[in-house]
Amino acid sequence: MIRRRHWFSWARHSVVILGISMASLLSAVEDPLSGDRERMVREQIEMRGIHDAELLRVLRVTPRHLFVPSINRAMAYADRPVPIGYRATISQPYVVAWMTELLDPQKTDRVLEIGTGSGYQAAVLAQLAKSVYTMEIVPELARSAREILNELGYRNVTVRQGDGYGGWPDEAPFEKIMVTAAPPELPRALLDQLAHGGRLVAPVGRGMSQQLTVVDKDAHGRIRRRPVGDVLFVPLR
Ligand code: SAH
Question: What is the per-residue pLDDT across 173-203, written as a single tens digit (0 to 9) for each?
Protein backbone atom coordinates (compact mmCIF):
# COMPACT_ATOMS: atom_id res chain seq x y z
CA MET A 1 0.00 0.00 0.00
CA ILE A 2 2.69 2.40 1.05
CA ARG A 3 4.76 1.44 -1.91
CA ARG A 4 1.88 2.02 -4.26
CA ARG A 5 1.22 5.47 -2.84
CA HIS A 6 4.85 6.23 -3.38
CA TRP A 7 4.61 5.17 -6.96
CA PHE A 8 1.55 7.33 -7.51
CA SER A 9 3.15 10.39 -6.06
CA TRP A 10 6.28 9.82 -8.11
CA ALA A 11 4.17 9.44 -11.25
CA ARG A 12 2.26 12.60 -10.49
CA HIS A 13 5.52 14.42 -9.98
CA SER A 14 6.98 13.29 -13.24
CA VAL A 15 3.83 14.36 -15.10
CA VAL A 16 4.15 17.80 -13.54
CA ILE A 17 7.81 17.98 -14.52
CA LEU A 18 6.92 16.88 -18.02
CA GLY A 19 4.05 19.37 -18.08
CA ILE A 20 6.32 22.26 -17.20
CA SER A 21 8.97 21.35 -19.69
CA MET A 22 6.37 20.83 -22.43
CA ALA A 23 4.89 24.25 -21.66
CA SER A 24 8.22 26.01 -21.80
CA LEU A 25 9.13 24.08 -24.93
CA LEU A 26 5.91 25.24 -26.58
CA SER A 27 6.39 28.83 -25.48
CA ALA A 28 9.98 28.77 -26.77
CA VAL A 29 8.69 27.67 -30.17
CA GLU A 30 5.99 30.36 -30.20
CA ASP A 31 8.20 33.06 -28.72
CA PRO A 32 11.91 32.40 -29.36
CA LEU A 33 12.93 35.41 -27.25
CA SER A 34 11.17 34.38 -24.03
CA GLY A 35 14.53 33.25 -22.59
CA ASP A 36 16.13 36.64 -23.34
CA ARG A 37 13.17 38.34 -21.71
CA GLU A 38 13.37 36.15 -18.61
CA ARG A 39 17.06 37.02 -18.29
CA MET A 40 16.29 40.73 -18.78
CA VAL A 41 13.76 40.68 -15.94
CA ARG A 42 16.01 38.72 -13.59
CA GLU A 43 19.34 40.42 -14.20
CA GLN A 44 18.40 44.00 -15.09
CA ILE A 45 15.28 44.49 -13.01
CA GLU A 46 14.88 42.07 -10.10
CA MET A 47 18.57 42.16 -9.18
CA ARG A 48 18.43 45.98 -9.09
CA GLY A 49 15.71 45.92 -6.47
CA ILE A 50 12.33 45.91 -8.24
CA HIS A 51 10.17 43.30 -6.57
CA ASP A 52 6.52 44.08 -7.35
CA ALA A 53 5.23 40.65 -8.43
CA GLU A 54 2.54 41.91 -10.77
CA LEU A 55 4.91 44.33 -12.52
CA LEU A 56 7.52 41.57 -12.95
CA ARG A 57 4.86 39.25 -14.37
CA VAL A 58 3.82 41.90 -16.91
CA LEU A 59 7.44 42.52 -17.97
CA ARG A 60 7.87 38.75 -18.44
CA VAL A 61 4.92 38.47 -20.84
CA THR A 62 5.20 41.71 -22.84
CA PRO A 63 7.02 41.04 -26.15
CA ARG A 64 9.37 44.05 -26.09
CA HIS A 65 11.10 42.94 -29.34
CA LEU A 66 7.88 43.50 -31.31
CA PHE A 67 7.95 47.21 -30.34
CA VAL A 68 11.48 47.68 -31.74
CA PRO A 69 12.07 48.18 -35.51
CA SER A 70 13.23 44.88 -37.03
CA ILE A 71 16.68 46.29 -37.82
CA ASN A 72 17.32 46.82 -34.08
CA ARG A 73 15.46 43.75 -32.82
CA ALA A 74 18.60 41.95 -31.67
CA MET A 75 19.10 44.74 -29.10
CA ALA A 76 15.53 44.64 -27.78
CA TYR A 77 16.41 42.94 -24.47
CA ALA A 78 19.78 44.65 -23.97
CA ASP A 79 20.45 46.82 -20.91
CA ARG A 80 20.11 50.10 -22.83
CA PRO A 81 17.65 52.31 -24.67
CA VAL A 82 17.20 51.33 -28.33
CA PRO A 83 16.65 53.74 -31.27
CA ILE A 84 13.19 53.53 -32.83
CA GLY A 85 13.70 56.23 -35.48
CA TYR A 86 12.65 59.92 -35.59
CA ARG A 87 15.24 60.75 -32.88
CA ALA A 88 13.27 58.68 -30.36
CA THR A 89 14.25 55.65 -28.28
CA ILE A 90 12.41 52.92 -26.40
CA SER A 91 13.60 53.41 -22.81
CA GLN A 92 16.04 51.02 -21.15
CA PRO A 93 14.09 48.10 -19.57
CA TYR A 94 15.14 49.08 -16.06
CA VAL A 95 13.93 52.65 -16.55
CA VAL A 96 10.53 51.39 -17.75
CA ALA A 97 10.29 49.17 -14.64
CA TRP A 98 11.48 51.91 -12.26
CA MET A 99 9.10 54.57 -13.61
CA THR A 100 6.21 52.11 -13.58
CA GLU A 101 6.94 51.16 -9.98
CA LEU A 102 7.08 54.85 -9.00
CA LEU A 103 3.79 55.56 -10.78
CA ASP A 104 2.17 52.64 -8.90
CA PRO A 105 -0.70 52.06 -11.37
CA GLN A 106 -3.90 50.52 -9.95
CA LYS A 107 -6.62 48.57 -11.77
CA THR A 108 -9.01 51.49 -11.28
CA ASP A 109 -6.61 54.15 -12.67
CA ARG A 110 -6.95 56.04 -15.94
CA VAL A 111 -3.40 56.83 -17.02
CA LEU A 112 -2.12 59.55 -19.35
CA GLU A 113 1.25 58.96 -21.02
CA ILE A 114 3.08 61.71 -22.92
CA GLY A 115 5.55 60.33 -25.50
CA THR A 116 4.11 57.07 -26.88
CA GLY A 117 7.27 56.30 -28.89
CA SER A 118 7.23 52.56 -29.59
CA GLY A 119 4.12 51.91 -27.48
CA TYR A 120 5.98 49.52 -25.13
CA GLN A 121 5.54 51.57 -21.95
CA ALA A 122 1.86 52.01 -22.82
CA ALA A 123 1.51 48.22 -23.20
CA VAL A 124 3.06 47.68 -19.77
CA LEU A 125 0.76 50.29 -18.19
CA ALA A 126 -2.30 48.87 -19.97
CA GLN A 127 -1.86 45.58 -18.14
CA LEU A 128 -1.66 47.26 -14.73
CA ALA A 129 -4.26 50.05 -15.03
CA LYS A 130 -7.86 50.44 -16.18
CA SER A 131 -7.05 52.41 -19.32
CA VAL A 132 -4.19 54.30 -20.96
CA TYR A 133 -4.38 57.49 -23.04
CA THR A 134 -1.08 58.12 -24.79
CA MET A 135 0.10 61.05 -26.94
CA GLU A 136 2.88 61.12 -29.52
CA ILE A 137 3.98 64.14 -31.54
CA VAL A 138 5.55 62.21 -34.47
CA PRO A 139 2.74 60.95 -36.75
CA GLU A 140 4.69 57.89 -37.99
CA LEU A 141 5.43 56.74 -34.42
CA ALA A 142 1.83 57.32 -33.34
CA ARG A 143 0.67 55.20 -36.28
CA SER A 144 3.10 52.30 -35.75
CA ALA A 145 2.46 52.22 -31.98
CA ARG A 146 -1.30 52.15 -32.59
CA GLU A 147 -0.84 49.27 -35.04
CA ILE A 148 1.28 47.04 -32.81
CA LEU A 149 -0.83 47.72 -29.69
CA ASN A 150 -3.90 46.79 -31.70
CA GLU A 151 -2.31 43.70 -33.20
CA LEU A 152 -1.27 42.45 -29.76
CA GLY A 153 -4.77 43.05 -28.39
CA TYR A 154 -4.23 45.83 -25.83
CA ARG A 155 -7.78 47.14 -26.15
CA ASN A 156 -7.66 49.66 -23.29
CA VAL A 157 -5.03 51.92 -24.92
CA THR A 158 -5.93 54.97 -27.01
CA VAL A 159 -3.14 56.62 -29.03
CA ARG A 160 -3.49 60.24 -30.13
CA GLN A 161 -1.09 62.07 -32.41
CA GLY A 162 -0.40 65.54 -31.06
CA ASP A 163 1.64 67.78 -28.79
CA GLY A 164 1.52 66.42 -25.25
CA TYR A 165 2.43 69.77 -23.64
CA GLY A 166 -1.26 70.58 -23.39
CA GLY A 167 -2.23 67.10 -22.15
CA TRP A 168 -5.57 65.57 -23.08
CA PRO A 169 -8.20 67.89 -21.56
CA ASP A 170 -11.30 66.06 -22.82
CA GLU A 171 -10.31 62.89 -20.93
CA ALA A 172 -8.96 64.61 -17.77
CA PRO A 173 -8.60 64.23 -14.85
CA PHE A 174 -6.19 61.28 -14.72
CA GLU A 175 -5.24 59.39 -11.56
CA LYS A 176 -1.76 58.85 -13.01
CA ILE A 177 0.37 60.69 -15.58
CA MET A 178 3.72 59.50 -16.98
CA VAL A 179 5.90 61.69 -19.17
CA THR A 180 8.63 59.87 -21.13
CA ALA A 181 10.36 62.88 -22.73
CA ALA A 182 11.95 65.67 -20.67
CA PRO A 183 10.35 69.13 -20.42
CA PRO A 184 12.55 71.91 -18.98
CA GLU A 185 9.81 72.56 -16.38
CA LEU A 186 6.70 70.60 -15.37
CA PRO A 187 3.95 71.63 -17.84
CA ARG A 188 1.12 73.46 -16.04
CA ALA A 189 -1.57 71.71 -18.10
CA LEU A 190 -0.41 68.27 -16.94
CA LEU A 191 -0.45 69.32 -13.27
CA ASP A 192 -3.97 70.69 -13.79
CA GLN A 193 -5.12 67.42 -15.40
CA LEU A 194 -3.87 65.31 -12.48
CA ALA A 195 -6.71 64.08 -10.24
CA HIS A 196 -6.74 64.88 -6.53
CA GLY A 197 -4.87 62.03 -4.85
CA GLY A 198 -3.07 61.40 -8.15
CA ARG A 199 0.59 61.01 -9.10
CA LEU A 200 2.75 62.19 -12.00
CA VAL A 201 6.20 60.84 -12.89
CA ALA A 202 8.38 62.82 -15.32
CA PRO A 203 12.00 63.55 -16.18
CA VAL A 204 12.47 67.31 -15.75
CA GLY A 205 15.40 69.44 -16.90
CA ARG A 206 17.52 70.53 -19.82
CA GLY A 207 20.15 68.68 -21.85
CA MET A 208 22.19 66.27 -19.76
CA SER A 209 20.87 67.62 -16.48
CA GLN A 210 17.51 65.93 -15.84
CA GLN A 211 15.91 64.71 -12.63
CA LEU A 212 13.29 62.01 -12.55
CA THR A 213 10.57 63.73 -10.54
CA VAL A 214 7.58 62.32 -8.66
CA VAL A 215 4.69 64.75 -8.13
CA ASP A 216 1.84 63.96 -5.74
CA LYS A 217 -1.39 65.93 -5.63
CA ASP A 218 -3.20 65.49 -2.32
CA ALA A 219 -6.95 65.39 -1.65
CA HIS A 220 -7.03 69.21 -1.37
CA GLY A 221 -5.19 69.71 -4.65
CA ARG A 222 -1.87 70.64 -3.05
CA ILE A 223 1.25 69.65 -5.02
CA ARG A 224 4.35 68.07 -3.53
CA ARG A 225 7.33 67.16 -5.73
CA ARG A 226 10.46 65.15 -5.05
CA PRO A 227 13.45 64.30 -7.25
CA VAL A 228 14.35 60.59 -7.21
CA GLY A 229 17.42 60.34 -9.46
CA ASP A 230 19.36 61.47 -12.54
CA VAL A 231 18.05 60.32 -15.91
CA LEU A 232 18.57 61.05 -19.59
CA PHE A 233 15.56 61.31 -21.90
CA VAL A 234 14.98 62.93 -25.28
CA PRO A 235 13.59 66.45 -24.79
CA LEU A 236 9.86 67.08 -24.90
CA ARG A 237 9.57 69.18 -28.06
N1 SAH B 1 7.51 55.71 -23.88
C2 SAH B 1 8.22 55.42 -25.11
C3 SAH B 1 9.58 56.07 -25.18
C4 SAH B 1 9.42 57.45 -25.58
S5 SAH B 1 10.76 58.34 -26.23
C6 SAH B 1 8.34 53.92 -25.33
O7 SAH B 1 7.89 53.13 -24.51
O8 SAH B 1 8.87 53.55 -26.38
C9 SAH B 1 9.99 59.93 -26.14
C10 SAH B 1 8.89 60.15 -27.15
O11 SAH B 1 8.30 61.40 -26.87
C12 SAH B 1 9.38 60.22 -28.59
O13 SAH B 1 8.68 59.30 -29.36
C14 SAH B 1 9.06 61.66 -29.00
O15 SAH B 1 8.69 61.76 -30.37
C16 SAH B 1 7.90 61.98 -28.09
N17 SAH B 1 7.66 63.42 -27.89
C18 SAH B 1 8.57 64.42 -27.82
N19 SAH B 1 7.96 65.60 -27.61
C20 SAH B 1 6.63 65.34 -27.53
C21 SAH B 1 5.48 66.17 -27.32
N22 SAH B 1 5.57 67.49 -27.15
N23 SAH B 1 4.27 65.56 -27.30
C24 SAH B 1 4.14 64.23 -27.46
N25 SAH B 1 5.21 63.40 -27.66
C26 SAH B 1 6.44 63.95 -27.70
Answer: 999 999 999 999 999 999 999 999 999 999 9
Calculate the CA dihedral of residues 106, 216, 112, 115 and round it to 10 degrees.
-120
Architecture of domain 80-231: 3-Layer(aba) Sandwich (3.40)
Ligand 1 site, CB within 6 A: 86, 88-91, 114-115, 117-118, 120-121, 135-138, 141, 163-165, 180-181, 234, 236-237
Please state the pTM of the whole predicted model: 0.89
CA–centroid distance, residue 137 to ligand 1 (Å): 7
> Which among 128, 137, 92 is positioned nearest to 229, based on CA atoms?
92
Ligand 1 pocket test target in 96, 120, 138 with most atoms within 8 Å of CB: 138
Residue 10 has pLDDT above 80, yes or no: no
Sequence spans of domains, the chain? 80-231
> Is residue 91 annotated as part of the catalytic site, yes or no?
yes
